[in-house]
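User: Quick sanity check before I run a bigger batch. Here is a single chain. Can you write out its predicted 3D structure?
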Amino acid sequence: MERGPAIFAGMVFVLFGGSLLVWTAVRVRHREPVAQDVSPVASAALAGLGAVATLALGAWCFVRL
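Assistant: Done. Predicted structure follows.
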């Protein structure tokens, strides 16, 4: 009963974290701003940290299975 929601939540977190990490990496590689009116280094670091955190949360959901 609990496996379905855990798999769904894990997939959502992994897909979001992965796409955020790829998007941030592409923006940084092309030297484009990650967030408007914010320091480029700070916004890239914060977005990367958020991506890694959601990937870790997705991994935690899968480990709990």
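The radius of gyration is 14 Å.

User: Great, the batch can go ahead then.
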